[in-house]
Amino acid sequence: MGDLDVEHGSQMEIIRKTKDEEGVPSPGSFLGSDSRDDDGRIRRTGTVWTATAHIITAVIGSGVLSLAWSIAQLGWIVGPVILISFSFVTYYTSWLLSDCYRSPNPVTGKRNYTYMDAVKANLGGMKIFFCGLTQYMNLLGATIGYTITSSISMVAIRRSNCFHQKGHNVPCHISNNPYMISFGVIQIFLSQIPNFDRLWWLSIVAAIMSFSYSTIGIGLGIGKIFGGNLHGMVEGVNNITQAKKVWQAFQALGNIAFAYSYSMILIEIQDTIRSPPPENKTMKKSTLIGIFTTTMFYMASGCIGYAAFGNNAPGNLLTGFGYYNPYWLIDFANLCIVIHLIGAYQVYAQPLFAFIEDRISSLFPKSKFINEDHKLHVPLYGIFPLNIFRLIWRTLFVIITTVVSMLLPFFNDILGILGALGFWPLTIYFPIEMHISKLSIKRWSLKWNALQFLSMVCLFVTMAALLGSIEGVLQQLRHYKPFHTKY
User: Fold this and answer.
1) Among 4-8, 66-70, 125-129, where is mean pLDDT lowest?
2) Phi-psi region of 106 (alpha: psi -120 to 50; beta: other; left: phi over 0)
3) Is the N-terminal amide bond of 365 cis, ω within 30° of 0?
């Protein structure tokens, strides 16, 4: 098979996945190491920096580009206050959630490999199903949102070059669909990365890219302000009807919620961290570094973008600078977005892959098709564990998300819906409820009341954001044509 040499006959080595006492797949022998963690799995190698890279890749996503628009809807006072408030709330509940990786003791207890495992160990009942449904539907939605956003950036590069070569009066109408397909093809290959722990290098590249395009957007905004364009009002957008302002304010809340949404994969990230020191201690450091860093970028991007464009702040900050000069810099920023979203797609998809594969493996433990890995010799890489079931089902997953993305080419509204659906249950409700359960906090005590008040306030914000985003989608559907790109 060309450069890829698959051993056949007696030389074929098939590694059969076995189960330990708890039904968890034991590590393959590809790494050639007998070093094991306390649960019998290959020793984890993640550090505070790899965990931080995963967090930044997940958090500083396409949502950062919508923050100028969100600040414009809320105004100079409410906008930044909401942005900072979400950062504090997310940090606090992430701090609580990191203590749920092990149960009952956060340092010496049994490991919970997924968010669902943590809910099962601490809460149980129907909450396990509710958690799984919310988490994995949100992960699925994130992959669709990233496919759409990446195509928007790729089309922006093509249109920019078209205008530069043919003149500004040429329509340069370009369909998003071929670029969604190209993004999907890349994801088919990357989806064969066996597990989350092997993603560290991709997350580091993606995190660098997110810093790059955020910095470019901030720099261009500062340049526009210094050019005499200083805008913005205390009350935000005021040239629309009151009803529309309310809906758009609700939608802005959803965009900000999505911009901080990563709790759905926090436990999975923590499961990559080596110990000692205790995993929860390392995760708390990574959470502090990650959220502090992203908040600084969010404040700069949102506020500088609003100052530069005022009430006309675009839903995607980079599109506000047009397709002209400095077109090469904007092209580079859009390229950084694409590379970042390539990594972010995998950060959100891998937990979903692992969930489905673990469930299928438990149903068919003796199936060679599902449970056997084959040694594949790849030039410049070495031995790659090829699993036929993983190859087929992950490829089908990418194809389906790509087709759905082509059917739903909305941007701001999809961001708001994703943020609203995932924020309260996964970032607020479950961390708080598990914390109450672990510490046996008495009902109606001062701390219990404070935690419930925080949960209810965030539930109200989530419902408002969801309503605003749904209204936005309904507006888009009035002019919707399947597989059609609208400028």
Assistant:
1) 4-8
2) alpha
3) no
